[in-house]
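Final report, closing paragraph on structural work. Over the funding period we assembled a curated collection of sequence-structure pairs, and we close with a single example.
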Amino acid sequence: MWVLMGGGGGGRWVMVVGVGGGVMKLMKMKMVVVVGVGEMVVVLVEMVVVGVVEMGVVVVVAVVEVVVAVVEVVMVVVVVWCGGEVDLPTAMDPDLTKPWALPEEFLKRTFSLIDSDKDRNSASLVCKDWYDAERVSRRHVSIGNCYAVSPEIVAARFPGIRSVTLKGKPRFSDFNLVPEDWGADVQRWLGVFAAAYPFLEELRLKRMAVSDESLEFLAMNFDGFKALSLLSCEGFSTIGLEAIVTHCKNLTELDIQENGIDDLGGDWLSYIPENLTSLEVLNFATLNSEVSFDALESLVSRCKSLRVLKVNRKISLDQLRRLLELAPNLTELGTGSFAEDLVTSSVSELESAFGKCRDLHTLSGFWDVTLLYLPVVYPVCGNLTFLNLSYATLGAVELERILSRCKSLRRLWVLDTVRDEGLEAVGSCCPLLEELRVFPADPFDQELGVTELGFVAVSNGCPNLHYVLYFCQRMTNAAVAAVARNCPNFTHFRLCIMSPDEPDYITNEPMDEAFGAVVKTCPNLRRLSVSGRLTDLAFEYIGRHAKNLETFSVAFAGSSDSGMEYVMRGCPKLRRVEIRDCPFGDRALLSGLDRYESMRSLWMSACNVTMDGCKKLADEMPRLNVEVIKEDGSEDGVADKVYIYRTVAGPRADAPPFVVTL
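Its predicted structure, as stored:
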């Protein structure tokens, strides 16, 4: 272990950096933990280091801020206050004032143990040696905006990448606010990767444009390719999937979720070679067409390492039983449709097949499920930690029946067909619940849905709740305040009152105090989505109290530019802001001038922003891409949709005519 010892001020410091358990043992000394990296490491070390002692254990140094808590990260620094007086030597060995100048092989080995991108990013900022050691040892890169950097820049910095996560369109594209041919084509990235990373093994794409030709290129140019995940992508068909399963001989993962795919039929599954036995993850739950069950059954039977299987609604209950009997070691399962008439013996056989899946902890699917067949999943409920019922139109009775057996549940997704009575069952049956998402079955049916009563009921029984997404037709300030009091550890609070400009339906007051209570009571809040009738007061509360907020979304709310100004100036950790249909204009837009380069992106649509305001922002901040989407081709001064993001790649070359880059 490298131990850096020194004195300063009124006592003596011992600084130790280690990996994993070695550091945790030192935690018993009840001292201060310092995490991360930054300029402080240079200043501190040059002031206090007096010697280096080698004790045979791998260690590194990194400092940025002091926190009084045990932080479970791979690389940490323990600063131990030993007390006493120590005089600094008058002449110091210059090598000892640069503790980062460690052997190259040692640095590479240390960085190879760090999986967290955030920790690696921080460590790379310490000095040139650490930067080089980090970049050559990195095997995975995650890119949150495909236009924030070019593939050439990525390839030049990281020569050994084997896994890439790449995101494209803004999130509001999920609500049809971004034109279909806006961009985010993956092909350019694949072309660069083929030359730089022929050994690429894993690609995860989200909101990217992916053609069949791109999938074929991927399959043909990366011999060792193993894992493909496509989430909310568009532009491809099952022909592209045929190319992937035909040519990727070592495929371990094929995960296809919520894509705009041209589903030409289920024959693609038959193209998987009969000698492929490596598959561990297969998810085609959201494809519509019937797949070849013979091919699926054969694949499952020979892939002994299969742990995740999520099928679509074309798979019957009897077929599901046959698959479960072949793969009892599954940890995650997405069922098919429950719309089938089974004889009693078949129901018993299906229940028995579920009972043999002792490792199952995640369950989803449940299309067309009824109370009649719900008991077949009861044998696995006791081990479930995640139950996704977002495709199942269950009522309160059905939900209570299944939740009464799910005592270990941490995550739950449901439709609002469960009503408030179903959420009362959540509160009474799931004391360990940490995440709840309630989606609308029909956003336009005001007779259905959940209210503030169900929200409060959940919070009363689930004190560990820290993530909520809640769609409802009505809400009150008092209810939200009660939820915040009951669950003060919220990190994600996303409340969507579906009727725009909806006040507290009891008092007819704005919902300002509701969100004020959330930001005052929940200091760890990182993501906040607000809705309902809000004045500038709500935004003032957010700016004053939400000091850890990173992502902020708002729709149909606010009363003046001051609201956005409060948030932009008051929330120092903001990274992403999404705004639609709000009365914010140029003054609000320009209030973030000193913030945008530290943020990932800003989206504003149907606000009061003008082209002149956008041009001024672009002039003031040349390292930002300021894009205005003008689908009607008009040359008026209105900037209806504005997308602003930081980039090191400059203006994009593939912008369509309706995207004006300023």
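The two ends are 53 Å apart (CA to CA). The chain is about 30% helix and 20% strand. We thank the funder for supporting this effort.
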